[in-house]
Amino acid sequence: MTVSQDTYRVSDPQVLKAVAHPLRVRLLGALRLDGPATATELAARFGESSGSTSYHLRQLARYGFVEQDPEQRDARERRWRSVHSYTSWSELELGGSPEGREAAGFMRNRQIEVLIRDRERFERQRGTWSPEWVDAAGMSDDIARLTPASVKLLYDRLKTMVHDMEASDAGLPDVQRVSVHLAAFPSRGYGR
């Protein structure tokens, strides 16, 4: 595993499997998006016991995903923060073993669950968003004939574009946190 430029690159299937636990993914996501929090605050947010969230935060810390926030507001509370903003892994590298394929599959499933939760939350809150946000939000799909190199380039360009747009929109009055998901899987045939 390596950590560089705010990305934790996981090469050990056990580490990836550890973070793929459904509650751990949610805890890590909350710390990344909303900043430091205590186990008790996270427990209330996710309808869990503080003992459960505390245990899972310690597991995330064991594998290097979170740490105690050095800027504690109160010496009696233990606030946790994410160590990095992104987690990445190589499908090829992890795919060399059944354990690695299983761990990568767990993470892909968690990513799909997050996408579904994001979409369902938007649908529940649709009436609270401006017409501009309702028109801009949504999903699309496309089918293209690409090489593996082109798919990797697509990911890199989109990531750069998202960060550039975020920097250019910083401070604007209608800025909102937006979940951007991209998936690309080759297929042979249609409907199989």
List keywords for this structure.
8 helices, Arc Repressor Mutant, subunit A, single chain, 3-stranded mixed beta sheet, 192 residues, 6 strands
Describe the structure.
This protein is mainly alpha-helical and 192 residues long. It has one domain (2-139): Arc Repressor Mutant, subunit A (Orthogonal Bundle), CATH 1.10.10.10. It has 8 helices and 6 strands; from the N terminus they run ββααβααβββαααα. The chain has helices at residues 13-19, 22-34, 39-46, 50-62, 91-94, 98-125, 131-136, 148-169, and strands at 2-4, 7-10, 37-38, 66-68, 79-82, 86-89. The chain is globular and about 55 Å long. The mean pLDDT is 88.
CATH superfamily, by name, is Winged helix-like DNA-binding domain superfamily/Winged helix DNA-binding domain
Gyration radius, to the nearest Å?
19 Å
User: What is the top-level CATH class?
Assistant: Mainly Alpha
- Number of domains in the coordinates? 1
By CATH, the architecture is named Orthogonal Bundle
Helix-strand layout with pairing:
Blueprint: E1 2-4, E2 7-10, H1 13-19, H2 22-34, E3 37-38, H3 39-46, H4 50-62, E4 66-68, E5 79-82, E6 86-89, H5 91-94, H6 98-125, H7 131-136, H8 148-169
Parallel strand pairs: 2-6
Antiparallel strand pairs: 1-2, 3-5, 4-5
Helix pairs in contact: 1-6, 2-4, 3-4
What's a quick, concise take on this entry?
The protein has helices at residues 13-19, 22-34, 39-46, 50-62, 91-94, 98-125, 131-136, 148-169; strands at 2-4, 7-10, 37-38, 66-68, 79-82, 86-89. The chain is mainly alpha-helical and 192 residues long.
